[in-house]
Design a protein that fits this description.
Strand order of the largest sheet of chain A: 1-4-3-2-5-6
Structural class of chain A: alpha/beta
Number of helices of chain A: 13
CATH superfamily of the largest domain in chain A: Ribonuclease H-like superfamily/Ribonuclease H
Mean pLDDT of chain C: 90
Distance between the termini of chain C: 28 Å
Number of domains of chain C: 1
CATH class of chain C: Mainly Beta
Distance between the termini of chain A: 65 Å
Number of helices of chain C: 2
Structural class of chain C: alpha/beta
CATH class of the largest domain in chain A: Alpha Beta
Order of helices and strands of chain C: EEEEHEEEEH
Shape of chain C: globular
Strand content of chain A: 5-15%
Helix content of chain C: 10-25%
Mean pLDDT of chain A: 92
Number of strands of chain A: 7
Oligomer: heterotrimer
CATH topology of chain C: Lipocalin
Low-confidence stretches of chain C: none
Largest sheet of chain C: 6 strands, mixed
Chains: A alpha/beta, B alpha+beta, C alpha/beta
Shape of chain A: globular
Chain lengths: 312, 346, 149
């Protein structure tokens, strides 16, 4: 049996976002090759209502990509590969034989992941007041930049970064170039099928997310589905496991997803959800608005402060 | 026994009360401010002759004084039923299967309480208001003679009876010892045939309150915004603190007591609040603040001393009023009914 | 409340009280706490890293994906003060004084001690948490000046 990837081990048993960096490949660390270092960034699990969103980076010399990765391995957009192929490819990067000896077949590639947990995603998106919200895009951009920054701090000189993005590429590319003026950036949709180094990152991210989700099952036979809200297995799980007060385990479910909010609010499964009112439900409420109309023009200083009107 | 969250309360008890381990009998007295918008104060007395007030508090709530602004600016929000967005969760840390929820997010706590304020309230019992805003209007509307005032010196026991009969029957829950301590703070006393006789005195009340004002002023809560810029001279800053500290007491004393307090000239033992208020007002008039700012600040300080004979109406009436008769009403059933009703409601 | 019975203060059970920043429209017991609403110790370690005063430390928890950050209210009341969880027992007997005869009396009986009473605000709204606690402390101190002479 293949052992769990180190990217997964880092993220088990925690509610919070964790980052793992592999060893820097010898050829890069020692500066043996004159070939420039290229880096790919991709993400897995942005849409699902369950499990972490994983950002993966992988990097190698351009030479290693062109002479080893492309001719010898079937890296591609992770979605085009089967689960087995993906896991097998990734295993060659951390523990080829699954025996823990540390013998690594694809030894010219370094990688790192950040797994953003459902707790961090939800709590970031559901801050109060809403102006404080940390939306998914910002979270994603920050994690990506931190992964690159971490590598720079480890002494790796990166020449060119290729980023797969779902959002508008131009503004994101600009943001990255401003943050890292010494690095070239290519931000593109479908970069995972265009650039091999991005394909590697996509495999690293996808396998890491899948295994973390697997590890979150309460028992082996539990069926979570893919985690996408459109997956009937996932919706069946949500229906079956919804509780009146806390709804679902926070380590697994992204409460900030509309799917969850609707299931809670509308109590679709008629389980007798306990209604919980939040302060944002009352922003711009009639009561508050009415005070805006009647807002007195007098200065605060005019008010006489007493024990009761100040402290109670 | 059925167990429901709403049946549960949180109450924080001071250490010295915990140590006594007593059954605390809770009773109520009218608000010492004689302000009809304020409810009765909930009290208990313990065996070592200390009285405590039970207060209720909920967080996630802004100051009453800022309520309109806070609502208009979306700083605070309250539920449709005007409750705070706060609830209570209770968890047994040794057995997490035992946990309760309560919709109401408030909790109770007991704090030391000096019933001297209720004596002052009784003394000025004709000085009744409906809201604290009325304190800014310097004309005292009530006739000057107070029900609580009497020209006779009374023994402790007689005072107790007087309070029970003509102020509130629940004074019966206050021990003579506690009453004695409170009376001594604001009364003139004479001793005759080994009995001490008490008569509450205006000046003693004002002296007592002025001392409290001094203490508040030197420990003024940081959250209270100053009425002057930092650049104002130190002695004027001190006068400002006296003004702010005096205003704090509006919640605790009747309007008449407050109006007299801000004109109080002081004694050997206490400051002259009148002097401090005038100093503050004079500064506002003479310094370089804009007219608009001045106007606002003076309103905030209630422009004390600007209208010296504003309460002369009351004084005139004083002269014509007959000597008071100490009321000796029997306890009437109607009164008891009302109290019973009060408790039933709780 | 007509009385609080601290004489038979059987409050061996140790509870935590949480004042949470939302309106939960339910009164009563819940069995969902065995595997929910556990303090986020990992996050607390980070946030309390440079908090020297233990009474000032913050607590982190979650309700339906919302992160809430709290502080214990009890230290404000001073050492030795105790928070009780009481249950109101309604009795119609005449154990109270005669004037309460024929009326129901409500006796608050402690059923547990609250080791902490944590007031929470939402993540992002911590300034409200600290300003309200500060003000509450000022109120308690002011009360001491006004009523402790």
């Amino acid at each position: 049996m293949v052992s769990l990837p180190p990217t997964v081990l880092t993220s088990l048993g925690t509610l919070h976002t964790k980052t793992y960096y592999s060893e820097i490949p010898e050829v890069i660390k020692n500066g043996v090759s004159s070939s420039p270092v290229i880096l790919g960034v991709d993400e897995a699990g942005r849409g699902p209502v369950m499990g972490p969103m994983v950002y993966g980076i992988s990097y190698c010399t351009k030479e290693y990509q062109d002479t080893v990765l492309i001719p010898k391995y079937a890296f591609d957009d992770s979605k085009k590969l089967t689960d087995n192929i993906r896991r097998n490819l990734f295993s060659k990067m951390y523990d080829q034989n699954g025996d823990g000896t540390g013998e690594i077949e694809i030894d010219g590639v370094g990688y790192a992941t950040t797994a953003i947990t459902p707790v961090d995603i939800s709590s970031g998106m559901l801050r109060y007041p809403p102006s404080q919200n940390y939306n998914l895009n910002e979270q994603a951009h920050d994690v990506t930049m931190n992964l690159i920054q971490g590598l720079v701090e480890k002494g790796v000189t990166i020449d060119h970064v290729y980023v797969d993005t779902v959002g508008p590429p131009v503004s994101y590319q600009k943001k990255l170039e401003t943050r890292f003026p010494n690095i070239k950036f290519t931000v593109a949709k479908k970069a995972d099928s265009l650039y091999c180094v991005v394909s590697v990152a996509s495999v690293v991210a996808k396998v890491t997310r899948d295994i973390i989700l697997e590890q979150m099952k309460s028992n082996e036979n539990e069926i979570l589905g893919s985690g996408y809200p459109s997956d009937p297995k996932t919706t069946a799980w949500l229906a079956k496991n919804q509780k009146q007060l806390f709804a679902w385990p926070q380590s697994l479910v992204r409460f900030s997803w509309q799917t969850c909010q609707t299931l809670i609010k509308e109590d679709k499964h008629k389980i007798g959800m306990v209604p919980i009112e939040w302060e944002e439900d009352y922003i711009n409420s009639k009561k508050n608005m009415s005070k805006q109309w009647t807002k007195p023009k007098t200065d605060n200083k005019k008010k006489v402060i007493t024990l009761d009107n100040w402290f109670l | 026994m059925t167990v429901h969250g709403e049946n549960k309360d949180i109450i924080i008890i001071p250490s010295e009360v915990v140590a006594l381990g007593e059954q605390l009998k809770v009773f109520t007295l009218p608000s010492p401010s004689n302000n009809s918008s304020k409810g009765r104060v909930e009290l208990f007395q313990v065996s070592n002759n200390l009285v405590y007030q039970i207060k209720n508090h909920s967080f996630s709530k802004g100051s009453k004084i800022n309520n309109n602004d806070d609502m208009a600016n979306d700083v605070y929000h309250y539920t449709r039923d005007n409750e705070t967005l706060k609830s209570v969760i209770l968890t047994n840390e040794q057995d997490r299967s035992e946990a309760y929820l309560r919709e109401n997010g408030s909790f109770k706590f007991a704090l030391k309480y000096d019933i001297v304020y209720n004596l002052i309230g009784f003394y000025y019992s004709e000085s009744i208001t409906e809201s604290e805003k009325e304190y800014s209007n310097q004309v005292s509307s009530q006739s000057g003679k107070e029900q609580g005032k009497n020209d006779r010196f009374l023994t402790l026991r007689d005072y107790h009876d007087l309070l029970v009969d003509s102020n509130d029957s629940q004074w019966a829950n206050i021990s003579l010892e506690v009453l004695k301590i409170a009376l001594e703070k604001i009364s003139n006393t004479v001793e005759e045939a080994e009995d001490i006789y008490y008569k509450i005195d205006d000046n003693k009340i004002l002296e007592f309150l002025a001392k409290i004002v001094s203490k508040i002023a030197s420990n003024l809560p940081k959250s209270i915004p100053p009425l002057l810029p930092n650049s104002a001279p130190e002695d004027i800053q001190n006068s400002m603190k006296i003004v702010l500290a005096t205003n704090i007491l509006i919640s605790l004393v009747p309007k008449k007591a407050y109006l007299e307090l801000i004109k109080f000239k002081g004694t050997d033992n206490t400051i002259s609040i009148d002097t401090e208020v005038k100093k503050f007002n004079d500064y506002l008039e003479s310094n370089e603040l804009s007219i608009e700012e001045k106007k606002l600040l003076m309103q905030a300080a209630i422009s004390v001393g600007m209208n010296n004979d504003s309460s002369s109406d009351g004084k005139d009436k004083n002269k014509t009023i007959k000597k008071p008769i100490v009321p000796k009403k029997p306890r009437v059933a109607v009164g008891r009914g009302a109290i019973d009703g009060f408790f039933k409601k709780k | 409340m007509n009385s609080i019975d601290l004489s038979s203060s059987n409050s061996a059970k140790e509870y935590l009280g949480h004042l949470v920043p939302c309106k939960i429209r339910y009164n009563g017991p819940s069995d969902e706490f065995t595997d929910n609403f556990n303090m986020d110790n990992e996050e607390m370690e980070v946030l309390n890293n440079d908090v020297a005063d233990e009474s000032k430390q913050v607590y982190v928890n979650y309700i339906r994906g919302r992160k809430i950050i709290g502080q214990d209210v009890l230290p404000i009341f001073g050492e030795g003060s105790k928070a009780f969880l009481t249950e109101n027992v309604i009795s119609s007997d005449a154990t109270m004084e005669e004037e309460f005869d024929n009326t129901e009396s409500i006796n608050a009986k402690p059923i547990a001690t609250l080791n902490k009473l944590i007031n929470y605000e939402r993540d992002g709204n911590e300034s409200r948490l600290s300003s309200e606690l500060q003000k509450f402390q000022e109120y308690i101190e002011l009360n001491d000046i006004i009523h402790n002479n």
